[in-house]
Design brief:
By secondary structure, this protein is mostly beta strands. The chain has a domain of about 90 residues. Strand 12 and strand 13 form a beta hairpin. The protein is globular.
């Protein structure tokens, strides 16, 4: 049973076409302003960072930012998978996460985003989901440590992962949510040896982006 709550953001699982579009740098698209030295193609608040598998969005000014949390029903562009940049010492770097302070001191920034509207992701619910959840929509959690802006990093230059979860309950029928449940997740649950099944305490589900930046949204069933 999936009884341990250890969410991991929006992790690409597969593409319905059967093409390998859930593999890094195969299924990702580059995102940059393409002007000047690619300066400021992003918008972050002080202390924030981009983490691998973090849900991201596009601002009204066309900058990459962190997706909004539950109740905001904000559009979602995709899932963050990495960034290239030239750091303050002139060294070209590739990372799976980057803090605002690092990006602010860098140039030639190129982000890599899973953004295909048809991609299926896996995410963990901050609660239990059953087969009745299929077709229902969820927003991202607002709980401390599990909202879209939250993540963990392992040292300078190390890995950095999203800890974003889905809210405990689906949105009301007829409302617009951020992702739609399409099946049961196959992600290995935590700790090692646990399985994942409908009705588990913290169910892992497969989802598609329901409120996509570039696709007309459809409300929850």
């Amino acid at each position: 049973m999936s009884t341990t709550f250890k969410p991991f953001g929006l992790k690409p699982a597969y593409h319905p076409s059967g093409l390998d579009r859930a593999t890094p740098f195969v299924g990702t698209n580059s995102f940059t302003t393409g002007s000047g030295n690619y300066s400021a193609p992003y918008s972050l608040q002080a202390g924030q960072a981009f983490y691998q598998y973090q849900p991201v969005a596009i601002t009204a000014a066309g900058q990459l930012t962190i997706a909004e949390a539950a109740a905001d029903d904000g559009p979602v562009f995709g899932s963050f998978d990495g960034v290239e940049f030239t750091d303050s010492q002139g060294r070209r770097s590739v990372a799976k996460w980057a803090a605002k302070a690092t990006l602010d001191a860098s140039s030639d920034i190129i982000f890599w985003i899973f953004s295909d509207p048809e991609l299926v992701y896996e995410a963990q619910v901050n609660g239990s989901a059953t087969t009745a959840s299929i077709g229902n929509q969820y927003n991202f959690s607002t709980a401390t440590g599990y909202a879209p802006e939250d993540g963990i990093s392992i040292g300078n230059g190390g890995a950095g992962f999203s800890t974003t979860a889905l809210a405990a309950a689906a949105v009301t029928s007829g409302d617009q949510g951020q992702v739609r449940v399409v099946g049961l997740g196959r992600e290995a649950a935590y700790p090692a040896g646990e399985t994942n099944a409908w009705g588990d305490t913290y169910t892992i589900v497969q989802v598609k982006i329901a409120n996509n930046t570039f696709v007309y949204p459809k409300t929850s069933v």
